[in-house]
Amino acid sequence: MRVHVPGDKSLTQRALILSALAEGESRISGLLFGGDAESTANALRALGAGIPQIPSDGSEITVQGVGLGGLRSPGSQLDLGNSGTGARLLLGVLSGSAVETTITGDESLRSRPMRRVTEPLSAMGARFDFLAEDGLLPIRLRGKRPLQEIDWSTPVASAQVKSSILLAGLTGGASALITEPEQSRDHTERIFRQVGVSTESRAVADGWRVEMHNPPNRISELDFRVPGDVSSAAFLLASAVLGGTAASLDIVGVGLNPTRTAFLDVLERMGAEITVETDADDENLEAKGTVSASLSSLTGTHVGAAEVPRMIDELPLVAVLGARAQGETSIRGAQELRAKESDRIDAVVRNLRVLGVDVEEHEDGLIVLGSDRPLKGRVEAFDDHRIAMAFGVLGAAPGNDIEVDDPHASGVSFPGFWELLRELGAGSHA
Ligand code: S3P
């Protein structure tokens, strides 16, 4: 069965931001129609960019950009909802803009660490006041142009941190050099190239280094098609592998950027029947293609620190698959999971225990013991789309009966997820 997934969340955010910063009209299509995209689009509208309604069918929109120095202070605070990427990337964009504003978000976002971006951005010259608790949103920000150049080493491999600094460098006209312990997703570097901004990246002794020297003072319009989100595709692939879909699935038009695809390697390592076919064209400098999967029997595996950044959003799903694999599945070196939309280690461990799965919690991960016993119970979404969907997938597997308390949490990245899961379902349990 051929299936499409919603547009990539990371690329949607970047496409919206760069088309807002371009001079003139950008044409973008395939955008995610979901809560996180809407949050970022709303903030950019309040800052003066001409962004029409995001269509639900991925059709093209034309964005009227304001230029690198053209954002204006909004009349009210910017609420980024549940979107950590939106908040952190905009903190960067606005650091290099002559803008004063307050950025906030929902309860989940207001509990997520922001110092990892405000520290380097302060070093570049922007000013931040934490209005509630130290290091957390809401934050009052005063941007500055030009900013000072920066050479920053971040202790976490984070595309949000890297991108925030690069975007500040771009709007603030400052060189930005960043070292991270492992390479994080490189969408910003690739989309920068599309608008005429060059960066250089290479492996170094202490990790991965990205350098942007002397950014230009204007960027060209974007003409960009966002591919399907491989992190959303992952849920459907996992469902097919667990027998939760009536037939094998071919997910078409899905992004296959190599900094995002470690989950596909892990699925294969667990014994899943999957194939990956890359489309020949190199449109957007972002690879895309078709990923197919069918019912498979799985064996446990180990995921360690080196793989974590390339599959950070898929780790809850690996734990869930581990509950249905033979033997042990361990995830370690994944401390970052505690700083996502929820504490994803805690959330997964609690939910698996409710279902009677044998799971051991570690500060930096977990170890799950698989079984083929029917799994039944009511689990929590913890305000986290990926936790809701991971347990939705487990619940759709034959023999299981799992209720997720707040299925709507999936709307920020995958509207229509539950309907699609039911549509593809192998039986009434779905
Ligand atoms: C994202 C980066 C990832 C990921 C998030 C989107 C991005 O976070 O978890 O869903 O678009 O830059 P980090 O790389 O910051 O851990």
Task: Report on the architecture of this protein.
The chain contains 12 helices and 21 strands. The longest helix has 13 residues, at 9-21. A hairpin with a 2-residue loop joins strand 18 and strand 19 (365-369). The chain has 430 residues and is an alpha/beta fold. The protein has helices spanning 9-21, 35-46, 84-95, 115-124, 159-171, 187-194, 230-241, 262-269, 315-322, 344-354, 385-396, 417-423; strands at residues 2-3, 23-29, 61-66, 78-79, 100-104, 127-130, 139-142, 150-153, 176-180, 200-204, 207-212, 223-225, 249-255, 273-278, 288-294, 302-303, 328-331, 358-362, 365-369, 376-379, 401-404. The model has no long low-confidence stretch (mean pLDDT 96). The protein binds shikimate-3-phosphate (S3P).
Label the CATH architecture of the largest domain: Alpha-beta prism
General form: globular
User: Which segments are poorly predicted (pLDDT under 50) over 5 or more consecutive residues?
Assistant: none
* First and last CA, distance: 17 Å
Bound molecules: shikimate-3-phosphate
Please describe the biggest sheet, giving its number of strands, its sense, and whether it closes into a barrel: 4 strands, mixed
Q: If you consult CATH, what is the topology of the largest domain?
A: UDP-n-acetylglucosamine1-carboxyvinyl-transferase, Chain
Arithmetic mean of pLDDT: 96
How would you write the strand order of the largest sheet? 1-13-15-14
What's the CATH class of the largest domain, please? Alpha Beta
Content of β-strand: 15-25%
Q: Specify the CATH homologous superfamily of the largest domain.
A: Enolpyruvate transferase domain
Number of helices: 12
Q: Work out the number of β strands.
A: 21
Tell me roughly what share of residues is in helical segments.
25-40%
Structural class: alpha/beta
Nearest-angstrom radius of gyration? 21 Å
Number of domains: 2
